[in-house]
Design a protein that fits this description.
Chain B: This is Putative nucleotidyltransferase. Chain B: Pfam families: DUF2204 (PF09970). Chain B: GO terms for molecular function: transferase activity. The structure holds two protein chains of two kinds. Chain A contains two helices and two strands, in the order βααβ. By secondary structure, chain A is an alpha+beta fold. The longest helix of chain A has 18 residues. The relative contact order of chain A is 0.06. Chain B is of the alpha+beta class. Chain B has one domain: Beta Polymerase, domain 2, CATH 3.30.460. Chain B contains seven helices and six strands, in the order αβαβααββαββαα. In chain B, helix 6 packs antiparallel against helix 7. The longest helix of chain B is centred in the middle third of the chain and has 13 residues. The radius of gyration of chain B is 16 Å and the shape is globular. Classes of the chains: A alpha+beta, B alpha+beta.
Chain lengths: ~60, ~170
Amino acid sequence: MIAQNKFDSMQELKATVKPMEEYSQRSRQSHVQQECLVNFFKEGVIRHAAPSRPDTASKEMSYGV
Amino acid sequence: MGYSNDIKIFSTLQKHAVEYLIIGGTAVSFYGEYRMSRLANGQVTQTADYDFWYNPNLGNYYRLLSAVEELGKDVTRYRDETPDPKKDVFKFEFEEENYTIDFLPHIMVPISFREALERRTTVERDGIVAYFIGLEDLINDKQALGRQKDFDDIENLRKHNPNGFPPPQP
C-alpha cells in the first residue's frame, strides 16, 4: 500500500498523526533529536528580516488574502 | 544519534532553493522553551514533526518535490498530476530517520507568504541556513488556531521574549 502524502487540508493531514506510545524509546528518541536540532540553530548566527539571498518570492504567485 | 539525520532536511531544502518558513512546534521551541510535537488534544506525537510553510507557487512546488525526492521519497505521482500549490498539503513520514515532515501552503492567520518572509528570522550555522517565521507572525497564527496547546505556546513565547524578538536596542 502506498502511503498517502498529499492532503486537501491541514485538518485532514493532522487527523493522520499518531500519539506517542507509552514507554516507546524510539518515540522519545525522535523528540530528543528534534530538541538537539533546535538547540543547534539557537546557537547559530541569527539575522532578523535580512535576506541572505535575493528575495525570489514571486508576488504574483504568492498565496495571500 | 543527535540531530545529524534531521539536519539533512535543512541542507536539502537549501540545496534545492526551496522557499519555506519553519512554523509549528519547531518554531515555538526555537523562540521559547523546547516542547515536543503534540496533537490538537495535547497528546505527544509518536514522532517529532517538522512543519514547513512553503511558498505556494509552481516553481517552488517542484523544487520542494525535488528536495523530498532527494530525501528518499518517491514523488513521481505528484509530478505527474496537476498540482494546486495553493491547496496541496504534504506529509512525509521518514521511518528510518524517525521524524515526520509536513509542508503546508498557508497558515491560519491571513497573511501572505511574501509578507511573512520579509519578517522572518534567518539562522546560519555550519553552512546550514534555516528560515523561521517571525515571532509575531507565529504568535498571531497561534491565536488564530485557538486551541489550548496554542495558548500554551503563546505563553511560552511571551515568557521567553517579553520584549519581542529581537528585543529593541537600548
